[in-house]
Amino acid sequence: MWSRASAVKSFMTDAPARFGPLGQPYRMIHGFPSSALELSGALRRHGWIAVDTAHVVLIVDIPSGSALHGLRSDSPMAAVVVTDSPCPEYWEDLWQEGPAALLAGGCSVVEIARALKRASDGDSFRHTPRQESKLTVTERRLLQLTAMGLENKRIARELQLTEGTVKNGLGRVYLKLGLTNRTQLALYYWGLWNVLKGV
Known about the structure:
14% strand, disordered N terminus
């Protein structure tokens, strides 16, 4: 017999949970259909069933950067974001968009299932590696807009700054992150810098 207590208890272990005859509903936003099917099957074994109308949304950040777009274009009641991006500034930007949960740095299906449960219960939390941004809020915004391909003139208009202020701010961003050009900034922000460095 299903009960809420047994469902919560099963989330504390790796044993599959059941939430009724079909399972607890969630909706998934994922860039690769074959991976989405695999993840959906794994979550089904933990009591979650994919339904297009569910109020709990799992946003998988594949391809890199899609979660930020998904949070901005979709207004779910409770979003759980999963990203493997190593960029702490990107994590902060995701968190600023207001998801119920943010899981960064790798996680298991069990951890995703637990996050969906907590989000459906109204919890708001994040699990990110202990790595903080070196940038101020304004510098982080300069990084994001540069990574999105905007030129200094457009960034200045967007942030209501002068082009000189943008140029000086980007100089501080380059210095703090140890990068030298816009391409490196974009690769860093979208989580691809370590891959290209061979790390």
